[in-house]
Write a structure and sequence with these properties.
The complex is a heterodimer. By secondary structure, chain A is an alpha/beta fold. Chain A is built from nine helices and twelve strands. In chain B, strand 3 and strand 4 form a beta hairpin. The chains are: A alpha/beta, B alpha/beta.
């Protein structure tokens, strides 16, 4: 959905990040504009999930170099809840369980906190109930899920749907989906993909982090980036994902080395 | 632990103020003369003086328990003043004459009195230090034959009734602190629900320790006759002091055939500062006797205060088909220590007990659950279910579980479940990523963790308890 009027939502420049004195991100450059869907692929340990957590402000990571501009703000100057309030949303790879806290209660607190920070009206429990039930239809969720504890005893698919539901409620400018497809059967994958496609519009942008091309059959990206050892080593269109699927990551590796050899 | 988490769990005690009222204080120290002084000050019957002296002599032969998982400097029992009474300016005819300073104190603590009591439908027997200064709703209750008054008053008005039950559940020599209490208790509450009466309202007592260096030895006795039922609430706060204060209360409950006693506590005494200076030593003996058939004793406690908590509200299930319940939330922070749990003693046939314990440790605190389930040889078909969950906030605190199970009857069914969880960066990050700050996140996680216990509390207490936990864990985040 790339258009003439696209605004830059995210601009990452030469981003380096450490955790426990080990450098994980080694110079990431990435520009995301409104209306775009980017896929970030790569093997385990390539730094994909770290990039997602760094964007969301996870306290375990230290930024040693580089900058992140988000919606004309210095994202690195904001702490994690301020980033959420500003419109960065992370759909977690492993959503935590919160025993005893009803989903409806958690969702309403998140919704109202973010609405009030954005200067909008909060919803009382009854209004919120109507509102959330509408959004749940999109993800084909059973209403009894509102009364269950947050993520407790949820199947993998239910947890991921719950993440997308939260994205639907919070209406972020930038949605970062960290391996949302992992652990989903094909039916659940289709429902989640339908939800994401529904939420994607010309005012927001999505970054999908995934191992597999499978998700990209259902959510078609505008760009595909491949990460390795903390860097984006290749960027292409949606065909890149298909090629990767066909030939494997080693192919890309050989390919790059051959190219490097050719230029040398 | 992150700075945010640290700030969060380190917030000052909000009820730390001293009410300036003249107190009448007995000289420090404990001997038979002190006991005679207390007894004569209170104009007590001879049998009670004998009861006290008997307890005192037993106490002299006992030594302070040291098996519990808490550490504190040795208490000098001769450095404690065993009697303190607020000096009444004159004899009080009504609530309007209560010292305004005192009323303001209760105001600050949110004690429902006057119209607030009426609106809330709660009768309050207010204990300020050791002497009751106001009792409400007594007349309304007496219409149905319920006696609800201070134990001093009960000793004057209904001495035979008190004599019949006092010390029958917790004998004078039961343990070191119970013996001490039996020797020197100065006041407390007495509640008697006659045969067939369902108490029409929750009965409530607010305790408050107010005189620096004074010991507090409350004595509570609740009796429900055949078919009677009562819900009793006890709530506590205390002002901030640097010297440790000893609190050694005894609570005895007696339920006859088909009677039902529900006893709920919210405890928020001063816990000491972040260096562990000051704070209350809460060494309490609480026990209920389910004496009659089909009787029920239910304890619910929310323990958030005190430097040291040593407390095991217990049920002796003597009557056939009797039921014992224990629902507990114990929150410790800074250098607080809590060793708390319950004892369920199954004696009768078809007796059932349930234990739900939720321990929350924050800061550098330590919290232990210690529980005993004993099934006697004659207790056919006894059932117990125990669930002990611990939650750690940060990584410098500790949680321990010491379950003791003694089964002497092969028809018994005893189940024990335990879990430990931790509020870590990842949980807080999940909330933060949804725009929710650490303070609200911890409050929500902790209150969710305690939900099964809070559901057992009467409505207004549940609301108070929810606020209290958030209160104890909140602070300036950021």
């Amino acid at each position: 959905m790339i258009s003439q009027n696209s605004q830059t939502i995210l601009n990452v420049q030469n981003l380096h990040a450490n955790t426990q004195n080990t450098e994980i991100l080694k110079g990431i450059n990435l520009t995301v504009k409104s209306g775009e869907i980017h896929a970030i692929m790569g093997l385990n340990g390539s730094g994909k999930s770290t990039l997602a957590k760094v964007l969301a402000g996870h306290p375990d990571y230290e930024i040693t170099q580089g900058s992140i501009q988000f919606d004309q703000q210095d994202l690195l100057a904001l702490d994690s809840e301020e980033r959420a309030q500003a419109g960065v949303f992370l759909a977690f790879q492993y959503p935590i369980e919160i025993p005893g806290v009803a989903n409806s209660q958690f969702l309403r607190l998140a919704y109202n906190t973010i609405q009030s920070k954005r200067g909008n009206d909060e919803l009382d429990p009854l209004e919120f109930d109507d509102f959330v039930r509408e959004k749940m239809k999109l993800l084909e969720m059973n209403p009894d899920f509102l009364d269950r504890s947050v993520n407790e005893g949820f199947s993998g698919g239910e947890k991921k749907r719950n993440e997308i539901l939260q994205m639907a409620l919070l209406e972020p400018k930038l949605g970062v989906l960290d391996e949302t497809d992992s652990g989903l059967d094909i039916d659940a994958l289709k429902i989640v993909a339908k939800g994401v496609n529904h939420l994607s519009n010309e005012h927001n942008a999505m970054i999908l982090i995934t191992h597999y091309q499978r998700l990209l059959d259902h959510i078609v990206p505008d760009y595909v980036h491949v990460m390795e050892s903390g860097r984006i080593i290749k960027t292409g269109g949606k065909e890149l994902a298909l090629e990767l699927e066909k030939h494997g990551y080693d192919w890309l590796h050989d390919n790059l080395q051959n190219n490097a050899g050719a230029t040398a | 632990m992150s700075a945010a988490l640290q700030n969060l769990v380190n917030q000052p005690y909000k009820h730390g103020f001293v009410t300036d009222i003249e107190s009448e204080i007995a000289p420090k120290g404990l001997n038979e003369d002190t006991i005679r002084l207390i007894s004569s000050k209170k104009n007590e019957p001879e049998w009670l003086l004998d009861f006290r002296l008997n307890a005192y002599r037993k106490w002299l032969t006992m030594s302070e328990p040291d098996w519990q998982n808490v550490h504190y400097p040795k208490i000098d029992f001769q450095e404690i003043s065993y009697y303190a009474a607020p000096k009444p300016k004159e004899k009080l005819a009504s609530m309007d004459e209560v010292d305004p300073e005192l009323l303001r104190t209760f105001e600050k603590l949110g004690v429902p009195m006057h119209e607030r009591a009426a609106l809330a439908g709660v009768a309050v027997d207010v204990v300020f230090d050791s002497v009751s200064v106001a009792t409400t709703y007594k007349e309304k209750l007496s219409e149905v034959g319920i006696i609800f008054c201070s134990i001093s008053e009960a000793l004057q008005e209904y001495p035979e009734l008190v004599k019949q039950y006092l010390g029958t559940v917790v004998p004078v020599g039961d343990n070191f602190f119970a013996a001490l209490n039996s020797a020197v208790f100065t006041d407390g509450s007495f509640c008697f629900i006659p045969k067939g009466v369902k108490c029409p309202m929750d009965l409530s007592t607010y305790f408050r320790i107010n005189t620096e260096g004074s010991g507090q030895f409350e004595r509570t006795l609740v009796i429900a006759e055949e078919g009677a039922s009562v819900s009793y609430l006890e709530g506590c706060t205390a002002p901030q002091f640097d010297t440790n204060q000893l609190h050694a209360a005894v609570v005895e409950l007696v339920a006859l055939d088909n009677a039902d006693i529900k006893y709920s506590t919210v405890q928020n005494w001063y816990a000491g500062d972040e260096n562990g200076v000051g704070g209350i030593f809460n060494f309490v003996t609480k026990r209920g006797l389910a004496k009659g058939v089909n009787s029920r004793i239910s304890w619910t406690q929310v323990e958030t205060g005190s430097a040291i908590t040593w407390k095991y509200p217990s049920c002796i299930l003597r009557g056939d088909n009797s039921v014992g319940e224990f629902y507990s939330v114990a929150l410790t922070n800074n250098l607080q220590q809590a060793d708390t749990g319950t004892k369920m003693i199954h004696l009768g046939k078809n007796t059932r007990s349930t234990i739900i314990s939720k321990g929350i440790s924050a800061g550098k605190s330590n919290s232990s659950y210690r529980g005993l389930v004993r099934v006697a040889p004659g207790a056919q078909n006894a059932r117990n279910f125990s669930q002990c969950d611990s939650m750690l906030v940060g990584d410098k605190c500790g949680a321990h579980t010491f379950p003791y199970i003694q089964v002497n009857n092969n028809t018994a069914k005893v189940e024990h479940e335990a879990s430990t969880s931790k509020i870590g960066e990842d949980q807080l990050f999940y909330f933060a990523q949804r725009g929710i700050d650490a303070e609200e996140a911890v409050s929500m996680i902790v209150n969710g963790f305690c939900k099964e216990v809070f559901q057992q509390l009467p409505m207004e207490f549940a609301v108070e308890a929810t606020k209290l936990l958030s209160f104890k864990l909140e602070g300036s985040v950021g």
